[in-house]
Amino acid sequence: MGNIDFGNYLFKLRKENNLTQRFVAYQLDVSDKAVSKWEMGKSKPDLEKLKLLSTLYNVPLNELLSNQEKNREVKISKIVLTGGPCAGKTTALTWINNYFSKRGYTVLFVPETATELITNGVAPWTCETNYDYQRFQIRLQKVKEQIFDDAAKKMKNDKILIVCDRGILDNKAYMKDVEFKRILNELGTSETQERDSYDDIFHLVSAAKGKENVYTLANNIARTETIGEARELDNKIIFAWTGHPHFRIIDNSTEFEEKLKRLLKEITSFLGEPEPFEIERKFLIYYPNIKELENMPNCTKVDISQTYLKSHDDMERRVRARGINGDYLYYLTEKRKISNIKRVEFERRLTQNEYLALLMESDNKLHTIYKTRYCLSENNQYFEIDIYPEWDNQAIMEIELSGENEIIKTPEFIKIIKEVTDNNDYKNYQMAKETPKELIKRCIK
């Protein structure tokens, strides 16, 4: 847990001394927010502030320093920058490097594997089959990413951002699903494991969709697509990544410079600079046509089980298993509420053993939530439709937004009953308090 553990340690010391954050902030000549950030693990007090805290909490300075060093955490974030042809990815990589380097990050770039291979003679048209080429590309991609992952752990900086210029799931757009699964099976992995191995996905929409006048092949000799082919490929790449828990689509609704600024804003929000705000809207909807959803190429089914843990203060803690057909990844999430639609959220990946150990801390007053989630990429937005086993005529639809005023473009086949963003009755935490019979009673008549 790193910095979060040290933050909890500071929180415990303050509570033991019966002090408020406001009082501590006044004594140290800092803001309440600064003290809050220390206790939430989002920043650390410098040496001078630690000396003052040592006196205030009556704890030896060496003990504070020892705990801080013991809980030192190298924050490694791994994202994918993907997109359709002529989306601005090359320029975006430069912007990302300049922007986040200035903010204290060591930025590592995993170069685009397809361009490396094709420009050096290994291409779908030079290999015996496209299947052979894609297998070579995926193998090389995995090796490169592992090297960058290992290198990141040896960096001196505490904040590392790994940017993958396309990821493993991009290959799915260039081959049949059965071929893609066959390659992953040969490599001893799965689509769920590969897709969700990245912390966040950012897709830049091709200029062929809305900015046709600037579409060009001149800036990448490995590209050959027409405008029509570029649009189709852009959709296929979006469909390939649909199902990831954090997926952002950056469209062409603005001029190019503003498009890149929106990308930086999305990455900044994900990294939690200055804080990881999640802006979410939630709607009660009529039960959707499940067969229709499962037949849509831009929709992916995921099974989720969510268990709440014992917690303190205003923190909500939960563990989640997320996957399909027995192939799961595990997460710990901690949330604190800021407003009705804004929360500070921390999330980290767990091993299966860590997940099982944390289940021992489950709050037995709350039952585990089971649901099937349909992740839908539509109208350049990302929707999550949750189907609960207790309901047969209604469901919940959620969407994460980049800003509180962003317009939601709801798919036509989704019929909204009402918005329930600020209605506690439809929050998973509240639903976990109810028995299945009580949940059934809340179905619409």
Secondary structure layout:
Elements: H1 3-16, H2 21-28, H3 32-39, H4 47-57, H5 61-70, E1 75-83, H6 89-101, E2 106-110, H7 113-119, H8 130-152, E3 159-165, H9 177-186, H10 191-195, E4 200-204, H11 227-241, E5 247-250, H12 256-271, E6 277-286, H13 290-294, E7 299-308, E8 315-324, E9 327-337, E10 342-350, H14 352-359, E11 369-378, E12 381-387, E13 394-401, E14 416-419, H15 428-431, H16 436-441
Parallel strand pairs: 1-3, 1-4, 2-3, 4-5
Antiparallel strand pairs: 6-10, 6-13, 6-14, 7-8, 7-11, 8-9, 9-10, 11-12, 12-13
Q: What is the CATH homology-level superfamily of the largest domain? A: P-loop containing nucleotide triphosphate hydrolases
Number of domains: 3
H/E series, N to C? Answer: HHHHHEHEHHEHHEHEHEHEEEEHEEEEHH
Task: Indicate the CATH topology of the largest domain.
Answer: Rossmann fold
CATH class of the largest domain: Alpha Beta
Which residue ranges are poorly predicted, with pLDDT under 50 across at least 5 consecutive positions? none
- Terminal-residue CA separation: 46 Å
Tell me what portion of residues adopts beta-strand conformation. Answer: 15-25%
Give the averaged pLDDT, no decimals: 89
- What is the helix tally? 16
Question: Can you describe this structure?
Answer:
It contains 16 helices and 14 strands. It folds into three domains: 3-62, lambda repressor-like DNA-binding domains (434 Repressor (Amino-terminal Domain)); 75-271, Rossmann fold, CATH 3.40.50.300; 277-441, Hypothetical Protein Pfu-838710-001, CATH 2.40.320. An eight-stranded antiparallel β-barrel has the order 6-10-9-8-7-11-12-13. The chain has a five-stranded parallel sheet with strand order 2-3-1-4-5, sandwiched between helices. Strand 4, helix 11 (227-241) and strand 5 form a beta-alpha-beta unit. It has 445 residues and is α+β, with helices and mostly antiparallel strands.
